[in-house]
Amino acid sequence: MAKYLKIDSVLSGVVESLCAPESYMGVYHQPSFGSPMPSVELLSDIVERLRSVLFPGFFKEPFITPENMAYFVGSKLEKVRRELTKQVERGFCFACDKDEHACSADCAVRAESMCNQFLQTLPHVRRLLATDVQAAFAGDPAAKNPGETIFCYPSIRAVTNHRIAHELHKLGIPLIPRIISEMAHSATGIDIHPGATIGESFFIDHGTGTVIGETCIIGNNVRLYQGVTLGAKSFPKGENGHLVKGIARHPIVEDNVTVYSGATILGRITIGEGAVIGGNMWVVDDVPPGAKMYRNL
Questions:
Q1: What is the pTM of this model?
Q2: Pick from 160, 189, 218: which residue ends a domain?
Q3: Which of 63, 52, 113 lies closest to 88 in space, CA to CA?
Q4: Exposure winner among 38, 44, 57, 284, fewest CB in 10 A?
């Protein structure tokens, strides 16, 4: 009995310390008006349903035919719309600074409207993903067929999440796009901010350790290898000493560029069309179109 009392007294002190306001200040989230946080588990399910719609026959429901596809797609998207609307509403409430009545009314209406707008982007998302799949197949001699890249390649998984998250990001939905991007980051090691703009026929070979920043603009037919960083060179601060948010600080990569493994490209610079950046290069200045930069050994 004395042993249990001793443990209780220890826990009592820990609980008291952890519940002191000075301890949890800055790491505590009090739900706005009782609204729960978005669910990572439910968002993961939503993304998997979208993946099965975008690539019918590859994930979870393998027996899809042209005859039953309309039923399959319609049933999946109806559930996506219902569940995603709830999660988007939670995201709005997480970031909301309005009073309770205005928040509860406005966030619900905006969530439903934006989810409908997002669903209308799916044909465009699939068209882009189809070009990414072909780029992966054409760019990797180890790929036996395009379906292998859909089912197995981390690049296609990461870019699928990104293209979904990017459309949500463009609609101004808070938090949800970042969660979806971080799902792919955790699963593949490829870190693409949902704000990055990526053209068609995009392929990341191998992919692990690749980082693409928020304000990157990537053109068509761009190929990156593992460990490439498209990052910011500096982080300017405002008069209050805090980082200035939202400024363009990441590279522009034009069409038909190849960047080999381990290259680091920093700042709002332009990598010109058709340029080739060799492995482990450090690039902080504009690169002319067609240039080839290699490290001399």
A1: 0.90
A2: 189
A3: 113
A4: 284
